Amino acid sequence: MPRKEVKQKVCPSCGEAVKDPYKTWELVAPFPDKKMRITVTILGMFKCPSCGKSFKGVVSKVKMGVEGIEI
Asked: What pTM was estimated for this model as a whole?
């Protein structure tokens, strides 16, 4: 399985790097892809430590199917 490089989240207004989200939730795709895998996207709310602005971003994506789990 190919692993993607993890990007660090940055504030859209000031460009400061943000480490961890303070809130996360899951979004499950309603339809499977061609290989019959379901995509689960984990989203998060981040807060900038320097300017205080809150923004949303994708934390990770997981594809689950019969063959196993692909991150």
From this structure: 0.74
Here the tokens at position 16 are: 């400061």
- Distance CA(8)–CA(6), nearest Å, equals 7
Per DSSP, the residues of 33-70 read -TT--EEEEEEEEEE-TTT--EEEEEEEEEEE-SS-EE
CATH class of 19-64: mainly beta
> What is the tens place of the pLDDT at every residue in 28-56?
999 988 888 999 999 999 999 888 899 99
Alpha carbons 18 and 45: distance in angstroms, whole number: 11
Q: Is 67 left (phi over 0), alpha (psi -120 to 50) or beta?
A: alpha
